[in-house]
Amino acid sequence: MQMPEPNSALLARKAEIVARLRSVLPDGVIDDPTETRAYECDALTAYRCPPLAVVLPGSTAEVSTVLRECHAMGVPVVPRGSGTSLAGGALPTADCVILGVARMNAVLEADYPNRVIRVQTGRTNLSVTGAVEADGFFYAPDPSSQLACAIAGNIAMNSGGAHCLKYGVTTNNLMGVTLVQMDGTVVEIGGAHLDAPGLDLLGVICGSEGQLGVVTEATLRILARPEGARPVLIGFRSNEVAGACVSDIIKAGVLPVAIEFMDRPCIEATEAFAHAGYPDCEALLIVEVEGAPDEIDLQLGLIRQIAGKHDPVEFRESRSAEESAKIWLGRKSAFGAMGQISDYICLDGTIPVSALPRVLGRIGELSDQFGLKVANVFHAGDGNMHPLILFDANKPGDLETCEAMGAEVLKLCVEVGGCLTGEHGVGVEKRELMQTQFAPEDLEAQMRVKDVFDPSWLLNPAKVFPLTVSAPRRAA
Amino acid sequence: MLTPTDETELAEALRTAQAPLSVRGGNTRGMAGAGEPLSVAAICGVRLYEPGALTVVAAAGTPLAGLEAELAAEGQRLAFEPMDHRGLLGTGGEPTIGGVVAANVSGPRRVQVGAARDFLLGLRFVDGAGTVIKNGGRVMKNVTGYDLARLVAGSRGALGVITEVALKVLPRPEAAATITIEVPDAAAAVSALSAALGSPYDVTGAAYWPGRGALVRIEGFAGSVAYRARELERLLAPAGAVSVESDADAVAALWRDIRDVAPFQGKAGDVWRLSVKPSDAPGLAARLEAESLLFDWGGGLIWALLPEGTDARARLGPFAGHATLMRAAPETRARIATLQPQQPAVEALVTGLRARFDPRGLFAGAAA
Hints:
By secondary structure, chain A is α+β, with helices and mostly antiparallel strands.
């Protein structure tokens, strides 16, 4: 994976740049090479590069000041939430300033009558729910990293989670932002009211991977916590049958909050690791429904009826909180379990649910062809796949083979009508694959938006677009 | 009138256009600006429908009625409940799915499930240079590149002409009920609606119709609707006398009337549509001194009927939200902007985007 050559003129001016930043932000600048190492990568740890400096502003006004200074000096800025991006969205370049929002983590207002909360975006996803759960509310998007990931990064990547089949992703739960543009301009978009007055700028800001501005405050929709939730675990004789069952559940008019899928390699690895007591089968689904006890019984009854037509190996209905936790245990430890037996990369392509059997079959063939094992675990209800390709980081060339196979799987996702990334974002990881999904004019249209928000292309410039495609703009 | 029959003809028409165009689907929503008429009605047809994947892809000119009938045959629907503007605006024609997306239309269910933009999975459009652009796709989760689909949704034709949309659909519920609470005024209504929306009972409609009361809708499996109706009756009893209507036709008719602002239809005056913070609604409504009012979205949407030529924004003063002039005589329109003026920095972004997507000003007549 390539990154642009750092600007040597900026590297030579490091002392001056740091001094100028420190003059406007005395307590929030890090330039010591030992300390900037903490910011050299995000959760895509295969790629690392310490930044020129790190700034940690404490308010929107400070973010504005810092950005104005960087803009004046022509220094690229890479915004960072908690650094949990799996796509390298917060990967620095040697000539950039990392702007971390971690110090800005306050709840500004919890407004129950209007069902919104306004927070500073350094706040973690889970602690947004934490601020309102005692009053019976929650924030719906729930990426797996929710304990650590920041709302800033959730907005940048339009993060999803296991429960978005019912509640949608970040963009469906984001009502307003305070955005600071690269030149320091502060704009307020949206708020506690619905819909845009004219162009839906909020819609394009969400998911723009920190390239249009730094979001410092956000108004988020909060919802009343459901009365209860209960999962069932269903084992199947084949991936195809499990896939058909998902489709039938959806067609029947039941709308579960989550439908999770695991295949045999994943079941075996998690079973060895977490001892969740999963059945010995080719594929399993975890289906969770919500509501009052009677409503849950009603929905689970329907699901049992539908699953029965697919000759399940097992249908395990939770009868208690402990049993529910046990059903979720294996799924929630899947990534950890795989990590214990091997290094892996986690893909994030989305496919139409109807293409599931074909795609799983083809992934199996690619696995044989590349000589790398694959475990499949994913959000089946919305077709968001997370194939884990196993490799050995100590074996020279294995990472490259793994990445090459990953690229083939993602191309397959596009070919069947899906996309490269469902919730992790493009970052640097999938940047060079963008042309498999988009024609040159599609990418040009997207870059036009950046031209308007950040004409000097200083914000997170080496991400999202293939380097050769963005080169003329970055050089200008 | 230009009537391209496919995307290629449309792109050619845009490339060769010399003057501003007035782009429309069925021209039912009063969005088309001044210029030479261009209709996308002939670019129509459902391209793909997978009920098991909750996905439909349709060309922009596809009539909404036909699309909804096709979904209904599979027990599904467009959950955002697009309103029909014809009665309110006195327009004719046939609403199209492209127009629904271009105007980001929704209805009472918007408060719980979202607007058209929330169900949009992807689209194809042709910009002002005649370039065909696709964005998004047809899958539920997609963060590949910038979300231009949402930027174009609701842009009222200012950035380009939509040719195809992919939408998420949802199952039609088995049953529905309306709970009516007799309330003395708007403040009591918004307070009751807020209690309902803040409950775990999946409220899919929360309106205030002066004279009829505060109205709450629930939908789902019959047993579940009955249970939640009982719970809501108990919860809302302190706000006023509560009654429950469970007849499917009566429930559907009431919410269709709310969706389409039936109480204003055929009445003289200007129609304003305000999106506000729900708890601000009673105070703002009082400032409007309207002849008629209807609240939806728990108070977050205010429909107001004002005497002809009234500038609602002058009566409101500064507030959090926006006011749109929906129906007025041309003389009034010449004097009062259709959309709420924005902060200068936001206007600058909007102007910049319009200039890049429409360099020759073909869509200059579109308000955005």
